[in-house]
Design a protein that fits this description.
Helix content is 12%, strand content 33%. By secondary structure, it is mainly β. The strands form three sheets. Strands 1, 4, 6, 7, 8 and 9 form a six-stranded antiparallel sheet that branches. A three-stranded antiparallel sheet has the order 2-5-3. It has a two-stranded antiparallel ribbon with strand order 10-11. The N and C termini lie far apart (68 Å).
Protein backbone atom coordinates (compact mmCIF):
# COMPACT_ATOMS: atom_id res chain seq x y z
CA UNK A 1 0.00 0.00 0.00
CA UNK A 2 1.58 3.24 -1.13
CA UNK A 3 1.43 6.27 1.13
CA UNK A 4 -0.56 9.15 -0.26
CA UNK A 5 1.40 12.22 -1.30
CA UNK A 6 1.29 15.05 1.17
CA UNK A 7 -0.35 17.37 -1.32
CA UNK A 8 -1.37 17.33 -4.97
CA UNK A 9 -2.55 20.56 -6.55
CA UNK A 10 -4.47 21.20 -9.75
CA UNK A 11 -4.36 24.90 -10.39
CA UNK A 12 -3.82 27.59 -12.96
CA UNK A 13 -1.35 30.04 -11.52
CA UNK A 14 -0.15 28.06 -8.46
CA UNK A 15 2.80 29.79 -6.86
CA UNK A 16 5.33 28.98 -4.19
CA UNK A 17 6.39 32.14 -2.44
CA UNK A 18 9.10 32.64 0.15
CA UNK A 19 8.09 33.65 3.65
CA UNK A 20 7.71 37.36 4.17
CA UNK A 21 6.24 38.06 0.72
CA UNK A 22 2.81 39.58 1.13
CA UNK A 23 0.14 38.21 -1.17
CA UNK A 24 -3.57 37.69 -1.11
CA UNK A 25 -3.76 33.92 -0.88
CA UNK A 26 -5.56 30.95 0.60
CA UNK A 27 -2.96 29.73 3.08
CA UNK A 28 -2.32 26.12 4.18
CA UNK A 29 -3.68 26.94 7.65
CA UNK A 30 -7.06 27.81 6.12
CA UNK A 31 -7.09 24.60 4.07
CA UNK A 32 -6.29 22.52 7.15
CA UNK A 33 -8.95 24.27 9.24
CA UNK A 34 -11.60 23.81 6.55
CA UNK A 35 -10.66 20.14 6.16
CA UNK A 36 -10.76 19.58 9.93
CA UNK A 37 -14.21 21.13 10.19
CA UNK A 38 -15.53 19.02 7.30
CA UNK A 39 -14.18 15.79 8.80
CA UNK A 40 -15.61 16.53 12.24
CA UNK A 41 -19.06 16.80 10.70
CA UNK A 42 -18.58 13.82 8.39
CA UNK A 43 -17.33 11.51 11.15
CA UNK A 44 -20.10 12.55 13.56
CA UNK A 45 -22.71 11.87 10.87
CA UNK A 46 -21.13 8.49 10.04
CA UNK A 47 -21.13 7.37 13.68
CA UNK A 48 -24.74 8.48 14.14
CA UNK A 49 -25.98 6.78 10.98
CA UNK A 50 -24.07 3.59 11.79
CA UNK A 51 -25.26 3.66 15.43
CA UNK A 52 -21.67 3.26 16.58
CA UNK A 53 -20.71 4.29 20.09
CA UNK A 54 -17.10 5.41 19.75
CA UNK A 55 -14.73 8.29 20.28
CA UNK A 56 -12.70 9.73 17.42
CA UNK A 57 -9.61 11.79 16.70
CA UNK A 58 -8.79 13.59 13.45
CA UNK A 59 -5.32 14.47 12.17
CA UNK A 60 -5.04 16.61 9.06
CA UNK A 61 -1.53 16.37 7.68
CA UNK A 62 0.61 19.47 7.38
CA UNK A 63 0.82 21.03 3.94
CA UNK A 64 3.78 22.71 2.33
CA UNK A 65 3.88 26.19 3.95
CA UNK A 66 5.13 27.71 0.68
CA UNK A 67 1.85 26.97 -1.12
CA UNK A 68 -0.08 30.10 -2.05
CA UNK A 69 -3.45 29.56 -3.70
CA UNK A 70 -5.44 32.55 -4.97
CA UNK A 71 -8.06 33.88 -2.58
CA UNK A 72 -11.39 32.24 -3.37
CA UNK A 73 -14.33 34.61 -3.84
CA UNK A 74 -16.73 31.81 -2.87
CA UNK A 75 -16.95 29.40 0.05
CA UNK A 76 -14.53 26.50 -0.29
CA UNK A 77 -16.08 23.18 -1.28
CA UNK A 78 -14.78 20.06 0.52
CA UNK A 79 -15.56 16.44 -0.39
CA UNK A 80 -14.33 13.02 0.68
CA UNK A 81 -12.29 11.70 -2.23
CA UNK A 82 -11.44 8.31 -0.72
CA UNK A 83 -12.41 5.97 0.86
CA UNK A 84 -16.22 5.90 0.88
CA UNK A 85 -16.43 6.24 4.67
CA UNK A 86 -14.41 8.66 6.84
CA UNK A 87 -12.40 5.98 8.63
CA UNK A 88 -8.63 5.44 8.65
CA UNK A 89 -6.47 7.16 6.05
CA UNK A 90 -8.61 9.53 4.00
CA UNK A 91 -8.11 12.04 1.19
CA UNK A 92 -10.16 15.21 0.91
CA UNK A 93 -10.61 17.37 -2.15
CA UNK A 94 -10.82 21.08 -1.38
CA UNK A 95 -12.06 23.16 -4.32
CA UNK A 96 -12.58 26.77 -5.18
CA UNK A 97 -15.27 27.20 -7.84
CA UNK A 98 -15.00 30.97 -7.97
CA UNK A 99 -13.62 33.27 -10.64
CA UNK A 100 -10.11 31.83 -10.24
CA UNK A 101 -10.80 28.11 -9.68
CA UNK A 102 -8.38 25.63 -8.15
CA UNK A 103 -8.43 22.31 -6.32
CA UNK A 104 -6.11 20.62 -3.86
CA UNK A 105 -5.99 17.16 -2.26
CA UNK A 106 -5.52 17.13 1.51
CA UNK A 107 -4.62 13.86 3.31
CA UNK A 108 -5.80 13.12 6.84
CA UNK A 109 -6.11 10.30 9.34
CA UNK A 110 -9.35 9.50 11.17
CA UNK A 111 -8.99 7.37 14.30
CA UNK A 112 -12.21 5.76 15.57
CA UNK A 113 -11.82 3.95 18.87
CA UNK A 114 -14.20 1.13 19.86
CA UNK A 115 -14.21 -1.67 22.40
CA UNK A 116 -13.25 -4.78 20.42
CA UNK A 117 -12.73 -8.41 21.37
CA UNK A 118 -9.20 -9.67 22.13
CA UNK A 119 -7.73 -12.91 23.41
CA UNK A 120 -7.05 -12.57 27.14
CA UNK A 121 -4.38 -15.29 26.97
CA UNK A 122 -2.65 -17.44 24.30
CA UNK A 123 -5.22 -19.75 22.71
CA UNK A 124 -4.64 -22.92 20.72
CA UNK A 125 -6.26 -23.73 17.42
CA UNK A 126 -9.56 -25.65 17.80
CA UNK A 127 -10.12 -24.25 21.31
CA UNK A 128 -13.76 -23.76 22.30
CA UNK A 129 -13.97 -20.20 23.54
CA UNK A 130 -15.34 -19.18 26.90
CA UNK A 131 -15.77 -15.76 28.46
CA UNK A 132 -12.54 -16.31 30.43
CA UNK A 133 -10.59 -16.50 27.15
CA UNK A 134 -11.76 -13.08 25.97
CA UNK A 135 -11.70 -9.42 26.89
CA UNK A 136 -12.86 -6.10 25.47
CA UNK A 137 -10.23 -3.43 24.84
CA UNK A 138 -10.29 -0.11 22.99
CA UNK A 139 -8.69 -0.20 19.56
CA UNK A 140 -8.57 2.05 16.48
CA UNK A 141 -10.93 0.25 14.10
CA UNK A 142 -9.49 2.12 11.12
CA UNK A 143 -6.51 -0.24 11.26
CA UNK A 144 -8.59 -3.42 11.63
CA UNK A 145 -9.03 -4.21 7.95
CA UNK A 146 -10.05 -7.83 8.53
CA UNK A 147 -12.94 -6.98 10.82
CA UNK A 148 -13.57 -7.29 14.55
CA UNK A 149 -16.14 -8.31 17.16
CA UNK A 150 -17.67 -6.02 19.77
CA UNK A 151 -19.13 -8.37 22.41
CA UNK A 152 -17.98 -11.48 24.25
CA UNK A 153 -21.28 -13.19 23.43
CA UNK A 154 -20.39 -13.15 19.73
CA UNK A 155 -17.52 -15.58 20.32
CA UNK A 156 -18.37 -17.71 23.36
CA UNK A 157 -19.00 -21.33 22.43
CA UNK A 158 -17.33 -20.91 19.04
CA UNK A 159 -14.29 -22.87 17.86
CA UNK A 160 -11.01 -21.22 16.89
CA UNK A 161 -9.84 -21.85 13.34
CA UNK A 162 -6.28 -20.74 14.23
CA UNK A 163 -4.17 -20.05 17.29
CA UNK A 164 -4.21 -16.60 18.89
CA UNK A 165 -1.62 -14.68 20.84
CA UNK A 166 -2.43 -12.83 24.00
CA UNK A 167 -4.02 -9.41 23.21
CA UNK A 168 -4.55 -10.38 19.55
CA UNK A 169 -7.75 -9.02 17.99
CA UNK A 170 -10.32 -11.72 17.34
CA UNK A 171 -11.27 -11.60 13.65
CA UNK A 172 -14.66 -13.09 12.61
CA UNK A 173 -12.92 -15.35 10.07
CA UNK A 174 -11.04 -17.01 12.95
CA UNK A 175 -14.27 -18.48 14.34
CA UNK A 176 -16.38 -21.44 13.30
CA UNK A 177 -19.31 -23.21 14.83
CA UNK A 178 -18.31 -25.84 17.37
CA UNK A 179 -19.43 -29.38 16.54
CA UNK A 180 -22.29 -30.57 18.70
CA UNK A 181 -21.16 -34.19 18.25
CA UNK A 182 -17.47 -35.13 18.04
CA UNK A 183 -15.99 -38.29 16.63
CA UNK A 184 -16.00 -41.04 19.27
CA UNK A 185 -18.87 -39.55 21.32
CA UNK A 186 -21.56 -41.95 22.53
CA UNK A 187 -24.93 -41.02 21.05
CA UNK A 188 -28.29 -42.23 22.36
CA UNK A 189 -31.18 -42.11 19.91
CA UNK A 190 -34.69 -42.36 21.28
CA UNK A 191 -37.56 -43.23 18.95
CA UNK A 192 -41.10 -42.46 20.00
CA UNK A 193 -44.37 -43.22 18.28
CA UNK A 194 -47.87 -42.22 19.14
CA UNK A 195 -51.37 -42.24 17.86
CA UNK A 196 -52.72 -39.53 15.67
Amino acid sequence: YQQLPVVVVTLLGLSFQPSGVAAEATLPEQLIGTSQQFLEQAVSAYLTQSEIQARHEIEVQQLDPRIRLPVCDQDLNVSLESPEQPVGRVTLKVRCTGSNPWSIFVPAQVHIYRQVLLASRPLKRASILSAADLKLTERDIGSLNRGYLTSIEQATGKKLARQLLMDQVLVPAYLKQAEVISKGDHVVITARSGGI
